[in-house]
Amino acid sequence: MERYVLQYESKNLIALSTAIQDWLTSRIAIELMKEGAMLTVLSSLVAALAWPATLLTTFDIIDSKWAVAVDRSDKAGKVLAEVLLKGLQGNRPVTLVGFSLGARVIFKCLQCLADSKGDNAGLVERVVILGAPIPIKDENWEAARKVVAGRFVNAYSTDDWTLGITYRASLLSQGLAGIQPVDLPGIQNIDLTHVIEGHSSYLWMTREILEQLELDNYYAAFRSEHENPQQEKSTSN
């Protein structure tokens, strides 16, 4: 199996990462973490008025960099769709795996494939998005799902407050795939709250997560309850 990595807008992504890390090490962030205020915000997905005023005033430096990174990610998704449509991958079905904004690139790619003319069925075999900054409402998840021939996995953590504070409360009220399940037939939701300690945990746990998902199984066994990868693996043995 050939593997390719999509690298895009490294400068902007590094700038965003640096801004978030600076915020996380700031005095106000440390105090809020001690008080458990972050988890309170995420657990209820509250509207903007419920966020502490002192917390909101510290977001400005992140907001501008986040907006740029999201815009570049959406554009990268369109380019990825064009590459797949041209068959530059050798006219073979692909499996797309993305973390954080990389997951957004994939989702935008799927949307573009769905909007393109012609029969694109079979271009994308499987999709795994991890900690995805993608709203659940006002996004055409159904169209994105239709262009994926096999499994479409949304892995999330309800305690990923780094993603929550970055994406902001006004959009959290719409729901966010990276911190909760997507209620749509054909989307396999995997709750990783028990293994993901923070947003960056996906980076060093990607291989383990993919192994537990057993992607070689072409069709997913969808169940009524959201399961974690270990439970799914045990059930299939």
Write the layout of secondary structure elements.
Blueprint: H1 10-24, H2 27-35, H3 37-44, H4 53-56, H5 60-86, E1 94-99, H6 101-115, E2 124-130, H7 141-146, E3 152-156, H8 161-167, H9 169-172, E4 187-191, H10 201-213, H11 229-236
Parallel strand pairs: 1-2, 2-3, 3-4
Structural overview:
With 237 residues, this protein is α/β, with parallel strands linked by helices. The chain has one domain (10-236). The protein has 11 helices and 4 strands, in the order αααααβαβαβααβαα. It has a 4-stranded parallel beta sheet with strand order 1-2-3-4, with helices on one face. β1, α6 (101-115) and β2 form a beta-alpha-beta unit.
Biggest β-sheet strands, sense, barrel: 4 strands, parallel
Secondary-structure element pattern, one letter each: HHHHHEHEHEHHEHH
Please provide the count of β strands. Answer: 4
Share of helical residues: 40-55%
Q: Strand order of the main beta sheet, please?
A: 1-2-3-4
Assign the structural class, choosing from mainly alpha, mainly beta, alpha/beta, alpha+beta, or little secondary structure: alpha/beta
Poorly predicted regions are 40-50, 218-227, 230-237
Structural Rg: 18 Å
Q: What is the molecular shape?
A: globular
How many helices does DSSP assign? 11
Mean pLDDT across every amino acid position: 75
- End-to-end CA span: 25 Å
Count of structural domains: 1
**Multimeric organization:** single chain
Query: What is the strand content?
Result: 5-15%
GO molecular function: hydrolase activity
Subcellular location: Membrane
Keywords: Hydrolase, Membrane, Transmembrane, Transmembrane helix
Main location: membrane
